[in-house]
Amino acid sequence: MDTATLQTFTSPVVLFFILGLFAAFVRSDLAIPEALAKGMSLYLMAAIGLKGGVAVAESGVDSTIGSVLLLGVAASFLLPLTAFAILKTLGRLDRTNAGAVAAHYGSVSVVTYVTAVEILELSGMPPAGYMVAVLAAMETPAILSGLLLARGIGGRTSNEQSDMMREVFLNASVVLLLGSFAIGMVAGPSGFAEVSPFFAAGFKGVLCLFLLDMGLIAARRIMSARTLTWRLGLIALALPLVNGMIGVFAGSAIGLEVGSAAAFGVLCASASYIAVPAAMRLALPEADPGIYLTMSLSITFPFNILVNIGLITATAVALAGPIGISP
Amino acid sequence: MDTATLQTFTSPVVLFFILGLFAAFVRSDLAIPEALAKGMSLYLMAAIGLKGGVAVAESGVDSTIGSVLLLGVAASFLLPLTAFAILKTLGRLDRTNAGAVAAHYGSVSVVTYVTAVEILELSGMPPAGYMVAVLAAMETPAILSGLLLARGIGGRTSNEQSDMMREVFLNASVVLLLGSFAIGMVAGPSGFAEVSPFFAAGFKGVLCLFLLDMGLIAARRIMSARTLTWRLGLIALALPLVNGMIGVFAGSAIGLEVGSAAAFGVLCASASYIAVPAAMRLALPEADPGIYLTMSLSITFPFNILVNIGLITATAVALAGPIGISP
Amino acid sequence: MDTATLQTFTSPVVLFFILGLFAAFVRSDLAIPEALAKGMSLYLMAAIGLKGGVAVAESGVDSTIGSVLLLGVAASFLLPLTAFAILKTLGRLDRTNAGAVAAHYGSVSVVTYVTAVEILELSGMPPAGYMVAVLAAMETPAILSGLLLARGIGGRTSNEQSDMMREVFLNASVVLLLGSFAIGMVAGPSGFAEVSPFFAAGFKGVLCLFLLDMGLIAARRIMSARTLTWRLGLIALALPLVNGMIGVFAGSAIGLEVGSAAAFGVLCASASYIAVPAAMRLALPEADPGIYLTMSLSITFPFNILVNIGLITATAVALAGPIGISP
Amino acid sequence: MTETVVRKRIEILADTPLARRVTDVIDQVGISGWTVLPVQSGSGRDGQWREERVTGADKSLILSIASEEKAAALVDALAPILTSHGLLLTMWNVEVIRGERF
Amino acid sequence: MTETVVRKRIEILADTPLARRVTDVIDQVGISGWTVLPVQSGSGRDGQWREERVTGADKSLILSIASEEKAAALVDALAPILTSHGLLLTMWNVEVIRGERF
Amino acid sequence: MTETVVRKRIEILADTPLARRVTDVIDQVGISGWTVLPVQSGSGRDGQWREERVTGADKSLILSIASEEKAAALVDALAPILTSHGLLLTMWNVEVIRGERF
Ligand SMILES: Nc1ncnc2c1ncn2[C@@H]1O[C@H](COP(=O)(O)O)[C@@H](O)[C@H]1O
Ligand SMILES: Nc1ncnc2c1ncn2[C@@H]1O[C@H](COP(=O)(O)O)[C@@H](O)[C@H]1O
Ligand SMILES: Nc1ncnc2c1ncn2[C@@H]1O[C@H](COP(=O)(O)O)[C@@H](O)[C@H]1O
Ligand code: NA
Ligand code: NA
Ligand code: NA
C-alpha cells in the first residue's frame, strides 16, 4: 500500500487531477475546449484497447481469461442489484432514479481503470493485457440491469427499443475499445511498434490533461449540484468501497495474479460517467442527471483516484501473501 | 504485391479505417469532433510537407524532378478530360456535375498518398522526397480543367473570378503543403530534428485516428446518399483503376524508381475530397455535392486504400523487373 | 547575436510563424480550429510550467531567485507607467485606452518567452528553470497598474470588484502555469520522465503549429484594423525595444547569467495577448480591443519573435563580456 | 419585390442525446427538414450547466420551418414528452421565400 | 390543440468575457433562465472579426425567454451598458408551451 | 421604459464555403453588419448531413439586423441565387434598442 499511495500522490497524472479540482473550487476560468476533451477520451480508449490487444497477441491467452470475463459480466449485471436496494431505502430515491444510478455503479470508468494501471505499473504489478477485454465486457450489462430495475420488462415502442439497444451495445466506447483491441491483436507487437510513439509514449501526458479536465468538471458539477443529498453523497463513497472489496476478493479467488486482481477490484469500484449517462438520457429521460452524474463523476471518481485505488491495491497485495509482493 | 497487400491488412493505419467503416455501418454513434479532424488533417499536411522538404534538402534534387513535376501537372489537367467524357455518356451526368466530378479525379488525395507512402516504406520502397512537391502541384490544375469543362471560358463577374482563383491557388492545403515543404528545405535535417518527435514519430498514430474518422464519414455518406446511381458507383471504381495504371506506366516510363512510380500512380488514382469540393462549392454551387463527395470519398477513397494501392505497387514492381524487387 | 539571429531564421518554429503571416497576407483560407488553438496554448503553458518546476526540483533554488522575482513584479507594475505617459502624449490615446494598452506592455507573453527559450537553448544559453515562476509572477501586477492608471482608485461595485480580482489572480494562465510548476516540483525528474514524451518531446512541434496560428491571427487582425494610427504602430515597436533593454540591463545588474538575463529582457519586452485582453474586456469594456490587441498581437509580437529576441540576446551576451559566451 | 409567405419557425432546446428523438418526431409529422445548432451553456431551475461533451451533458438547439398546420401537429406530438424530456420550445411567424418547400 | 402563451424572446450578442455580466443581470431581474450559443464571426462598424478563443476575442449569443414585464426590466437594466459594452439586443414575441415557467 | 424600434431580422442558412458570398451581398446592400453562427447537422430534401469540416461539407447560419427597406433589398439581391446555392432564408420583425445603427 505504501508504494501505491506514494505513487498516487507524486504521479503527475493524479496531481493534474488535483489541480483541476483546485482550479474549479477557487472559481478560476480555466477550461479545456470540449472538442479536445472528447478527442482525448477517444484517444485514451483507442490506446488502451490497442495496448491490451497487443499484450494478448504477445502473451497468448491466459487460462483464466474465460472465467474473469464471465466474472466481469456477472459483476456488471449483479452489482446494480444491491446498489438499487441501498439507493431506494437509505438513499430515498424513487425507482427510476435508483435504477439509473445503480446502472452507473455496475458499469465501469475507463479513466479510473487507466489511472489504476499507471499506478500498478509504477508499483511493479501490471495487470494482464486481457483485462481491457474485461473492461469492455463490463460496460453494458449494468445498463440492462439498471433499466430492468427502473421499469421492469416491457413498455417502450420497438423503435425506441432498437435505439436503446444500439446505444447499449454499439455505443462509442464499446466499439472503440473492442475495435482497438482487435486491431492490437491483428497488428501485434510489430504493427504496434509503428504507432507506439503516438499511442504509448504520449499516453500519460494526454492522461494528465484529460484528468485536469475531469477535475474541473467534477468540482464544478458538485459546486452547482442542487439535488444531491448528504445521504446520496455517503452512498457514493460506500459503493466503490464495497464493490471494490467484492471485486478484489472475487478476482483473487479465481486465481488472478495481484495486478489483475487489483485491476478487477478497480473495475468493480468504478462508476461510469461516459457510456451510461448517455444511455440513461435516452432510456430514462425522466431520471435526473444532476443525481447520477454528480454521484459518479464528482464523488466516486475522485474518491477512487485519490484513495480507493490505493486501498484496493493494498488489499490485493495482502491477499496475495508475502510471495505476491514483487518490486 | 504479396508484401504490399499483407502490409495493407495488418497495418494499424488501414485497420482503423476499416473500424471506422464498420462502426458507421452498424450505426454506432462513434464520432470524432470535427475541430479535431480538421486539426489532424492540417497536421498531416504540415508533416508530409516538412518530411518532403527535408528529404530534398538532404538528397539534393534528382534529375527527374523536373520531368515528374511536369508530368504531374499534365496528368492533373488532362485526366479530367476522359473522366468528363465517361461521366457524361456512361454516367449520364449533366455538364455541370460531370465537370465537377472530373475535377476531383484529376486532383489528388493527400491522405491516400500518405497511406501509400506508409505501405511502400514498410515494403522497403520509399518514394523520393520531392514527390510531395508533385502532390502539391497536382492539386489545382484539375480544378481549372474541370471548370472549363463545366462551363467553358467566360461567365462570372471579376469579383467571383478573383475569389475563385484565390481558392484555387491559395487554398489551405496548397499553402500548407508547399509552405511546410519550403520550411523543411530551409530547416534541413538538423532543424527538423528538433520537431521530429512531433511531426515524424507521432505521424502514423495521428493517421490512424484520422483514417478512423474518414472511415466513419465515408460510410455514413454512402448510407445516406440519395442521388448516386449504380452507374456512377462503377465509374468511381473504374476511374482510379485506369488512372492508377496510366500513372504507374507514365512514371516508370520517365525513369522513376519503383517507389516513386507507385506513388505517382497512386496520385493519379486518388480523388480529392478536401481542396476540390470546397472549390466546387464556390465555383459551381449548382453541382451536387451528394454526387462528387460520395463518389470520391465513399467509393474511390476506400477502394484506393484497401485494394488499389496494392495493385499499383504490384504493377510498379512488375514494371521495374526482377532487379527492382528489394525487401 | 549572429548565432541567435541565424537560429531564428532557420528554426522551424519561427518559419511556421512566417508562413502564417504570409498565408494571411495573401488571403489564403488557411485556419486552425479555435478549439485546437486554445488547447495548444493550454498545452504550452502546462509544459513550460512542468519543465520549470522540474528544473527547480533538480537544481535547487538559485540565490538570485528572490531578487529576480521581486524585480519581475516591480517591472510588471512599473513599466506601464512610462508606457501610459507615451501613449497619452505621443500616442494621443484617451486615459482609458492608454491604461488598457499600458497594462499589456507591463505584462508578458508566454509564447514569446517560450520561443526565446527555444532560441536561447539552441544557442547554448538556456535560462534558469525558475524563470517560469518569474513569468507567472509578471502576468498580473501590470493589470492592476493599468487599471489604476485608467480610472484611479474607487468606482465599481464590490461584485464587479471581486469578479475582476478573480480574473486577475486566478485567470487560466496563472493557475495553469503555477499549478504545473508546482506539479513539476513535486513530481521531480523521475515523475516527469513518465510524461516527458508528451510534454517535452512534443513541445517544439506544437509550438510550430501554434505559431502558425498566431501568424495567421496577427496578420489578419492588422489587415482589418481600422482604429490603429501610425503613431500607435511606432509605439508598438518602440516599447518592446526600450522595455527589452531595461530588462536585460536590470537582469545583468542583479547578476543573472546570460541566458536568464536575456530571458528577463524578453519578458519585459513582450506584451500580453491572452491574459490581459480578457481582463481588460471585463474591467475596461469601454477600451477598444482594436487598439490593444492589434498593438500587442500584430505588431509587438511579430517584432519580438523576428527581431527583438535576437537583439536582446546579443545585448545580454555583450553585457556578460567575453567570459559569458559559452557554447 | 420578391414575394414571401408566412411560415412558423419552431426552435426546441434539448439534451444532445435526446435530439434524435425530437428530429424523429419532426420527420414523422411530415415537416420537410430541420437544422441543429450547438449550444454552449445555460441556466434554469436545475441550475447552471456547461457543455460537457465527454459525459453527454450538452444541449442542442433544433430549428425547423413549417406551415402553421404542421407546426401545430409538431407541438401536439411533442407536448407529452416536453416535461419528462426537459425540452424548451418556442415558435413564431417568419417570412420565407419559396414557401412551397415547407 | 396544445395551448400556448405569448412570451418575449430576447437575444443578446456580447463578447464572451462579458457574457457573464449579461447573465448576471438576467438572473437579477428574476428571469428563470438563459442559454448561450457560440458565435463564429461577424462584421460591424468596427470591422470584421473571427472567433479568436486564444485572445478572448470571441462572441456569444445569449437567449432568454421571459414575460413581457421581465423582458422590459431586462432591457432597462441593460440599456446603460449597451453602448459601453458593445452589446446587440433584439427582442420579439414567441409562443411557448408551459408558459407558467417563464 | 427604454425605447425600442422595429427592425427586420434576417437569418440565412448557407454552406460554409458559400457564406462569404452571402455576407458580401449583405455588405453591398448597405446593411451595417452580420453575425455568423456555427451549425451542426441538418436534414432536408437532399437527406441528412452532419458537420464535416474536413471536406467543407458544413453549414453556417448568417444573421443580420436591418431596416425594412434594406432587408427587402437584401431579399431581392439573394433571390436569384437562393435555389442554385441552396440557401434557406427566414425573416421577421424584432424590437431593437439604439435602432439608428441599423
Ligand atoms: N423545414 C426546414 N426547417 C429547418 N431547416 C431546414 C428545413 N428544410 C431544410 N433545412 C435545412 O436546409 C438544408 C438543406 O435543405 P434541402 O435544400 O431541402 O436539402 C437541410 O440540410 C437543413 O439543414
Ligand atoms: N427562461 C429561459 N430562457 C432561455 N433558456 C432557458 C430558460 N429557462 C431554461 N432555459 C434553458 O433550458 C435549460 C433547462 O432548463 P430547466 O428545465 O429550467 O432546468 C436551461 O439550462 C437553459 O439552458
Ligand atoms: N446589423 C447587424 N446584424 C447582425 N449583427 C450585427 C449587425 N451589426 C453588428 N453586428 C454584430 O455585432 C458586432 C459588433 O458590431 P459593431 O459594434 O457595429 O462593431 C459585429 O461584429 C457583428 O457580429
Ligand atoms: Na463498477
Ligand atoms: Na487523381
Ligand atoms: Na512586458
Q: Total strand count of chain D, please?
A: 6
**Main sheet summary of chain A:** none
Report strand % of chain A: under 5%
How many helices of chain A? 15
Residue stretches of chain D low in confidence (pLDDT < 50, at least 5 long) are none
CA distance, first residue to last residue of chain A? 12 Å
CATH third-level topology of chain A? Na+/H+ antiporter like fold
Secondary structural class of chain A: mainly alpha
Q: For the record, what CATH class of chain A applies?
A: Mainly Alpha
- Identify the biggest protein-protein contact and residues per side: A-B, 33 and 32 residues
Residue runs with pLDDT of under 50 for 5 or more positions of chain A: none
Structure description:
The complex is a heterohexamer, with 3 copies of chain A (327 residues) and 3 copies of chain D (102 residues). With 327 residues, chain A is mainly α. Chain A contains 15 helices and no strands. Chain A has a single domain (3-25, 32-319), classed as Na+/H+ antiporter like fold (Up-down Bundle), CATH 1.20.1530.20. Chain A has helices at residues 2-10, 12-25, 34-59, 65-89, 95-106, 110-122, 131-138, 141-151, 158-169, 172-201, 203-223, 230-253, 258-269, 275-283, 289-320. The model of chain A has no long low-confidence stretch (mean pLDDT 92). With 102 residues, chain D is an alpha+beta fold. Chain D has 2 helices and 6 strands, in the order E-H-E-E-E-E-H-E. Chain D has a 4-stranded antiparallel sheet with strand order 2-5-1-6. A two-stranded antiparallel sheet of chain D has the order 3-4. Chain D is elongated. The chains are: A mainly alpha (327), D alpha+beta (102). Chains in contact: A-B, A-C, A-D, B-C, B-F, C-E, D-E, D-F, E-F. Chain A binds chain D through residues 31, 34-35, 37-38, 41, 159, 163, 213-214, 217, 220, 224-227, 273-274, 277-278, 281-282, 285-286, 288-290, 293, 297, and chain D through 15, 17-18, 20-21, 24, 46-58, 81, 84-86. Strand 6 (88-96) of chain E pairs antiparallel with strand 6 (88-96) of chain F. One adenosine monophosphate sits between chains D (31-35, 63-65, 102) and F (13, 42-46, 49, 86, 88).
